[in-house]
């Protein structure tokens, strides 16, 4: 059993990673392990954060077993969270297989790689966003165990302008800030293949850094899949999947008071290549949007998995930091904000 992915380095987007509208469309699979989600986040100008997902999972040839829904969290500058969430039957889900055009009940996300609109609502809250970006995104995948078991990662908008509103019955929050969009789907049981992954997107005034460290289970050799992507304000500057060229170090463990899970307060991203040197020091400011990945499981199955196998979860982090980038002889000092997450199956 092994992990298959391209371990290469580029200074521009290669043909194999060029994104097409169909990459951001729906990929319906008749597989019980099928999961697909369309993700977005916004770092608002006032310091608030918006983060959300449209999702569908389960064998679509058995509609009663399919889960679909929406989730979004507004995190105020003082850390107060407001969650908008709703689940739907599969009959409420409609989507295009040619471009991003997903509808779940009255909720939707649609766009053409450079411009997206989305709407979410539950009984007393709503979110409306427009996301614009002139930067070309990318697509990639890795295979877990064999070529047929894949996880795809599509980033149509590495960095863009987000504007809109988040409304409750009492107040309207205006949104005008930096936005990110990606899209993922897979067809294997994550708990059998992945121990955890650290993922993050880091924004400096000029530069964007996107990283992930996906660590597989012992049966897949505890392998690390480690993409690192660097953009300036207009284009991709550097992308690598070679583990030897960059590292993610974590330090200062603390216990999250809500989940009782161990979290790291410091993240250090370092990269070294022929004419590139990067150091990013990130300090955890806030933990938010904690998700129990077993919440929708049958209670007996949930208990069995938690007791004998794993306690899968997602925790979202907001960090600030500083660093330095040297590329092609040019030195740049960095002042950063980061939205990142830890997904674990342990």
Helix and strand pattern: EEEEEEEEEEEEEEHEEEEEEEEHEE
CATH class bucket of the largest domain = Mainly Beta
Overall pLDDT confidence: 91
- Global morphology: globular
E-strand count: 24
**What CATH architecture of the largest domain do you see?**
Beta Barrel
Biggest beta sheet summary:
13 strands, antiparallel
In what range is the share of β-strand residues?
over 45%
Task: State the CATH topology of the largest domain.
Answer: AttH-like fold
Helix content: under 10%
Low-pLDDT stretches are: none
Distance between the termini: 20 Å
Question: CATH superfamily membership of the largest domain, which one?
Answer: AttH-like domain
Secondary-structure map with pairings?
Blueprint: E1 3-4, E2 9-10, E3 34-44, E4 49-57, E5 67-75, E6 81-88, E7 93-95, E8 100-104, E9 107-111, E10 115-121, E11 126-132, E12 138-144, E13 150-167, E14 172-187, H1 190-193, E15 194-203, E16 208-216, E17 224-225, E18 228-231, E19 236-240, E20 246-255, E21 262-273, E22 276-292, H2 299-308, E23 313-327, E24 330-344
Antiparallel strand pairs: 1-12, 2-19, 3-4, 3-14, 4-5, 5-6, 7-8, 8-9, 9-10, 10-11, 11-13, 12-13, 13-14, 15-16, 15-24, 16-17, 16-18, 18-19, 20-21, 21-22, 22-23, 23-24
TL;DR of this structure?
Helices cover 4% and strands 60% of the residues. The protein is built from two helices and 24 strands. The mean pLDDT is 91.
Textual characterization of the structure:
- With 346 residues, the protein is mostly beta strands.
- It has two domains: 14-188, AttH-like fold (Beta Barrel); 190-346, Beta Barrel (AttH-like fold).
- It is built from two helices and 24 strands.
- The longest helix is centred in the C-terminal third of the chain and has 10 residues, at 299-308.
- The radius of gyration is 19 Å and the shape is globular.
- The model has no long low-confidence stretch (mean pLDDT 91).
């Amino acid at each position: 059993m092994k992990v298959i992915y391209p371990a290469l380095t580029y200074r521009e987007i290669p043909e194999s990673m060029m994104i097409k509208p169909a990459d951001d469309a729906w990929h319906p699979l008749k597989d019980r392990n099928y999961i697909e989600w369309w993700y977005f986040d916004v770092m608002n100008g006032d310091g608030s954060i918006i983060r959300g997902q449209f999702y569908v999972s389960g064998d679509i040839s058995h509609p009663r077993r399919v889960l679909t829904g929406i989730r979004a969290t507004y995190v105020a500058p003082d850390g107060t969270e407001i969650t908008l969430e709703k689940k739907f039957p599969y009959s409420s889900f409609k989507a295009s297989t040619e471009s991003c055009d997903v509808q779940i009940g009255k909720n939707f996300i649609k766009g053409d790689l450079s411009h997206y609109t989305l709407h979410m609502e539950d009984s007393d809250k709503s979110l409306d966003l427009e996301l614009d970006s002139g930067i070309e995104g990318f697509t990639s995948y890795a295979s877990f165990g064999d070529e047929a078991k894949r996880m795809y990662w599509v980033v149509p908008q590495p960095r863009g302008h987000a504007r809109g509103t988040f409304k409750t019955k009492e107040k309207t929050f205006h949104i005008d800030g930096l936005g990110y969009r990606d899209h993922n789907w897979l067809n294997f049981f994550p708990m059998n293949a992945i121990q955890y992954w650290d993922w993050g997107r880091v924004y400096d005034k000029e530069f964007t850094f996107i990283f992930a460290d996906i660590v597989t289970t012992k049966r897949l050799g505890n392998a690390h899949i480690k993409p690192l992507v660097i953009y300036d304000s207009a284009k991709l500057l550097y992308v690598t999947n070679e583990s030897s060229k960059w590292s993610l170090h974590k330090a200062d463990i603390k216990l999250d008071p809500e989940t009782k899970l161990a979290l790291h307060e410091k993240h250090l991203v370092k990269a070294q290549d022929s004419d590139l040197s990067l150091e990013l020091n990130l300090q955890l400011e806030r933990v938010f949007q904690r998700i129990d990945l077993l919440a929708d499981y049958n209670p007996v199955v949930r208990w069995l998995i938690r007791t004998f196998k794993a306690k899968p979860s997602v925790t979202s982090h907001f960090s600030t930091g500083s660093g330095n980038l040297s590329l092609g002889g040019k030195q740049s000092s960095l002042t950063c904000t980061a939205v990142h997450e830890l997904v674990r199956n342990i």
